[in-house]
Amino acid sequence: LPSAKREYPPLPWTCAGATLINVYFEVRKEVLLDRLPKEFGRTTPAYCRLFIVDTPESPVGTFRDATLALGCRLNMMPAAFAAVALTNSPEVLAAGIFERGFPNTLGKIAFEADRNHAHAIISDEKGPLLEVTLPLLQTIEPSRLAYDHVDAIKTTRIENGVKPELLVTSPDFKIEQAAICKNARIEYPAERLE
After folding, report:
1. CA-to-CA dists, residue 35 to 29, 48, 81, 172, angstroms
2. DSSP 48-89
3. Kind of pairing, strands 138-140 and 178-180?
4. What value does the mean pLDDT of the chain take?
5. pLDDT over 80 (residue 76)
6. Which of 25, 97, 183, 193 is deepest in the core (most CB within 10 A)?
7. Which of 63, 62, 61, 65 is nearest to 52 (CA)?
C-alpha cells in the first residue's frame, strides 16, 4: 500500500459518456484455479475477461482503466475476479487501491473507438504489454449485452500489518449503445512474454 492516502472525491463517481471494450478469451483451467480466491468457483470453459474503459468525464477528469479479470462463479452466479488492473490517473489509482482493490498500478492506455472498430494499447513503464483490436463492430441492442460484476481483494492497513477483504461489487451503469465483434485479437509483444 502507498504510505499516504492521496486525496480523491468519495466514490461512487458519476462518469458520463464512458466507452468500454470488453473481450472474453479462454485460458487453461489450472492457471485460472491457481489465481482464484477460495470463495469463487470456475466456469466451464475457463476464461478471462479483459475490459478497457475510456472515461472522458469524471470528478477527477479524463481517465482510462484496463482490468484483466478471471471468469468465475460466486454463489453459483456469474462473476469476474480482478487479477490485475492499470490506470493512467493517480487519483483513480488511489481510489481503486483504498476503496475497491483495483486498479492497482499506473500505466498508459492508448484508446480509439467508433461505430465500426476499436483499438487499444496497454503499457507499463517498460513499454507495451498488450494490444487489443476489434476490427469490425456490428451494432446490437444494448439489452443483448450481459455485464457481470467484478470483485476484488481490498487490502487495508491495520495496527500490526495489513488485512485483506473480499469486495463484491455490482455494475451500476446504463448502456446506451452496444456492438459486438467476432474476430477480436489480443496480441502480446514477444519480448514481454519471458
Report:
1. 10, 11, 9, 26
2. EEEEEEEES--TT-SEEEEEEEEEEEETTEEEEEEEEEEES-
3. antiparallel
4. 89
5. yes
6. 97
7. 65
